[in-house]
UniProtKB/TrEMBL annotation, chain A:
Designated name of the protein: Sulfite reductase
Lineage per the UniProt record: Bacteria, Pseudomonadati, Pseudomonadota, Alphaproteobacteria, Rhodospirillales
Domain of life: Bacteria
Alphabetical list of InterPro entries matching this protein: DUF2849 (IPR021270)
TrEMBL record, chain B:
InterPro entries tied to this protein: NiRdtase/SiRdtase_haem-b_fer, Nit/Sulf_reduc_fer-like_dom_sf, NO2/SO3_Rdtase_4Fe4S_dom, NO2/SO3_Rdtase_4Fe4S_prot, NO2/SO3_Rdtase_4Fe4S_sf
Organism, scientific name: Thalassospira profundimaris
UniProt GO molecular function: 4 iron, 4 sulfur cluster binding; heme binding; metal ion binding; sulfite reductase (ferredoxin) activity; sulfite reductase activity
GO biological process: sulfate assimilation
Cofactor: siroheme; [4Fe-4S] cluster
Keywords, ordered alphabetically: 4Fe-4S, Iron, Iron-sulfur, Metal-binding, Oxidoreductase
Domain Nitrite/sulphite reductase 4Fe-4S: 119-273, 410-547
Nitrite/Sulfite reductase ferredoxin-like domain span: 52-110, 347-399
Protein name: Sulfite reductase
Amino acid sequence: MSLQVVTANRLEDGLVVFLTSDGSWSENINDARTAEDKEAANALLAEASAPELDTVIVGPYLIDVEQQGADLVPTKYREVLRTKGPSVREDLGYQAV
Amino acid sequence: MYRYDDFDRQLVHERTEQFREQVKRRLAGDITEEQFRPLRLMNGVYLQLHAYMLRVAVPYGTLRADQLRQLGMIARKYDKGYGHFTTRQNIQYNWPKLDEIPDALLDLAKVEMHAIQTSGNCIRNTTTDQYAGAAADEIEDPRPYCELIRQWSTFHPEFTYLPRKFKIAVTGSPNDRAAVKVHDIGLRMHQNDAGETGFEVIVGGGLGRTPFVGKTIRDFIGKNDLFSYLEAILRVYNRFGRRDNKYKARIKILVHEEGIDKIRELVEEEWTQIKDGSLRVDDAEIAHYIEQFAPPAFEAMSDDDTDFERHKAENRRFANWVRSNVIEHKQPGYAIANVSLKPIGGIPGDATDTQMELVADLSEKYSFADVRVTHEQNLVLPHVKKADLFALWSELDAAELGTANLGYVTDIISCPGLDYCALATARSIPLSQRISERFGDLDRQHDIGELKIKISGCINACGHHHVGHIGILGLDKRGKEFYQITLGGDASQDASIGKIAGAGFSEAEVVDAIESLVTKYIDIRESGERFIDTYRRVGMDPFKEVLYGDR
């Protein structure tokens, strides 16, 4: 099984966020806590789905990622776009920072 | 142009305040996302890939200058300085923050705008011919009827929870520029044998995963009876439309499964019960709405303007723009000017805040403060004096809004695709940009002539690929984007659904594939034939041959 992390959109502004090791949510996928097996992935998703987080994030789900050097990179292009921003507007989204 | 009455004003204001409270409760945790989602959708608020998206209604594609200027202001204040005009004649903002959306809605309400009927399983905003009230070929301005449909449908208590969304389009011209045959209901204005003006009612058209050209349920319905007849159709749909399967819930499936004759029978039966009731609209009321859309104060003048002709002769770029983007007006001395939102290599339908403000200013200067949004993702200044066209074009051109490509191969419809949309399976915009660059040379575009390329980034077909002369559907094949080509689609009065040419192409291959189709067309076309005409004459095989050879 590939590495997995949990992603969601932040309630307040809809921006893409990732669940980190201390249970907070980061805009940077490299801060994400990874799960190496199914059990850990389920635990990660369960933590992200806690009812009290309903005022923090929307629609948490697991995505597959690969460790590429220092970076975590999603395996699906859709998720790569979510970590960056629109490919047609490189001046916008996280890629612009 | 229609102005809000007190009732409209109150309705929009109350809705805005109601949504403000709903957002507050959501952020405070008093309601869950599950409870909030349908409420935000009823106010045009989607959650997309990167952020929230706010879809704002432009009823029947008509904007006043102050409204377009406000749309520009909203793009700057609540978004990242741009907006995206869609195939529904709406505008979408891609980056608003949830807690700021109620303020954005309030700013919209100040110019009599809103996000009502832009989402949810209701009767959506009615769309129509972008040249309404200006086109030389129209029988009558369709917008008074669109506005009456708007009043009938907004918050209609019976039709707020339909099986699925419901889209109505109206054309007042025999040359259909509103794609009425691929809507849930299409209304085509025409005259009966007695010389009365009314509508052909077409039902069950649509795109999406199961595309259909609509079928005529009634050849003629008089103006007074139109609204009760629409009500009868909606009642039949609301009662018998499928609610067990989202993908079979549109009226097109009901019409397909039951047959148009059966649906007609049910509708006529329902209509008999209600046709003499409160929905019968009398001539005086119709006249009242026609008055609201009365033509602006045109000056009586000759249709020939010597300065206009001189500028065309002296300036080739202006002449090219006139050739493609300027359309005949019903009033002598005036013309319809199309503002392309498809610069070569640009993002179809996107406009910056300052571009919106400029077009608003230009509309005040040259077009009675009247602007239209087209379902092909362009803007229109509908009433420009021929004598002013050169000045208008010069100002548009300086703001990168003077692209001379209306109806050509680079005037591509493209949905936002995977760059923005949570439903998309592949990107659409980058492909449209590469096709635009490949065919950007204007002489080549002139040679190719009218060619409608339409691109959707998923099966939901927001990019209308089924009715593109060349349609492109982006899909996901084992994590990679690939593109299926359809040929022979047409959104006009001769509507047809395109046929899949064969296996899809990779992102790297697809632009070459499109070029090979265009080259083939040029090789085999007969004099005066557009791409679609050639396709209809020769069929799929010659095109399949160039795409796949022996494959």
